[in-house]
Amino acid sequence: MARAYNFAPGPAALPESVLKQAQADMLEWGSAGASIVEMSHRGPEFMEVATRAEADLRTLLGVPDDYAVLFLPGGATTAQALLPLNFASQGDTVDYVVTGHWGKTALKQLTPAVSVNIAASGEADGYRTIPARESWRLTPGAAYVHITANETIHGVEYRPAWGEPAPDTGNVPLFADFSSSIASEPIDISRYGVIYAGAQKNLGPVGISVVIVRRELLERAGQPRADIFNYSSQLANDSMLNTPPTWNWYVAGLVFRWMLDEGGTVEFNRRSDEKAALLYGAIDGSGGFYRNDIDTAVRSRMNVPFFLADEARNAAFLDGAREAGLIGLKGHRVLGGMRASIYNAMPVDGVRSLVAYMQDFQKTHG
Ligand code: PMP
């Protein structure tokens, strides 16, 4: 089978041109006599890679100068554990808005030294909507408010139709898990205290994550912690307090460059609208053969869970999809059914192929 359209949720598809470049660079970096994966992270070659990756990410996302960018090993879950350690003091309250599985995961990473207030939760509604901002019970003086910008499994995302993509939390800094939607549209970083993302959806290979933090927040004392878990120490050491995941960082840098070359977040926003409209249109227009139950105001443009009315046909649907060159569509075990993840690296044509397949499948099985 040739390379398929890969709808996997993460690790997810990477642009083919990036993979080809990485393949070429794998054996020898320029005329260095060694691969970038074999060179010191402190040598001039990798320092150039790291510096350029940060500069490109800053350009891509429009990161203001008063924000630091960290490239850290580990995933979004690691960041979820490090946020309270770095930004909340003993006895502080932190506010969490839970809109799905990953919001719940974030809660599990909290240290017992802080008190958590669940300011709002979509659980009672099966996470099919995002509770209205007016219903949130925020704590005055909380250390921060944490949200999940896009819920990768439940398929809900803060969209303008909900009210605003970056909810107003007044003087309390807003921390957002952007793992599955970063760089899919232009955002106003200054509305956030911290933005973090595991790389393996929109930014590159798994194993590295990006943390964008308003510099003044790094002055907070936080909790007693090992230096390696200290974001300000990481910043002072250019995210190289220990040996960083150089290969992942390098490939992420290729993805940043690719996104800039393609037209940046403005273009990915346009494509995301187009892809989401195609796919939700096909689901909603199927007369109930396919179903997505999410409140239309907060439907994710990145992860589209959907269900066949007749679940007994799931296996046939997935087998046929694979034969049609469409992979990674099996839903998460928490929800079952199907899920199409349509991140930046998924071309509009990939979604067109999926829609055509869904319509064919319905014709033969409907
Ligand atoms: N948050 C979100 C929104 C995610 O989609 C994921 C992974 N799918 C995580 C957190 C956890 O990320 P990691 O596996 O990198 O720790």
Give structural notes:
- It is a single chain.
- The chain is 33% helix and 16% strand.
- With 366 residues, the protein is α/β, with parallel strands linked by helices.
- It has two domains: 17-262, 3-Layer(aba) Sandwich (Aspartate Aminotransferase, domain 2); 264-365, Aspartate Aminotransferase, domain 1.
- Bound molecules: 4'-deoxy-4'-aminopyridoxal-5'-phosphate (PMP).
- Residues 10, 75-77, 102, 148, 152, 177, 179-180, 198 line the site of 4'-deoxy-4'-aminopyridoxal-5'-phosphate (PMP).
Write the CATH fold name of the largest domain: Aspartate Aminotransferase, domain 2
In the CATH hierarchy, what is the architecture of the largest domain at level 2?
3-Layer(aba) Sandwich
Order of helices and strands: EHHEHEHEEEEEEEHHHEEHEEH
Question: Given this structure, which CATH class of the largest domain is correct?
Answer: Alpha Beta
Short description:
Pathway: Amino-acid biosynthesis; L-serine biosynthesis; L-serine from 3-phospho-D-glycerate: step 2/3; Cofactor biosynthesis; pyridoxine 5'-phosphate biosynthesis; pyridoxine 5'-phosphate from D-erythrose 4-phosphate: step 3/5. By secondary structure, the chain is an alpha/beta fold.
Features:
7-stranded mixed β-sheet, 14 strands, 2 domains, 16% strand, Aspartate Aminotransferase, domain 1, 3-stranded antiparallel β-sheet, Aspartate Aminotransferase, domain 2, binds 4'-deoxy-4'-aminopyridoxal-5'-phosphate, alpha/beta, single chain, 366 residues
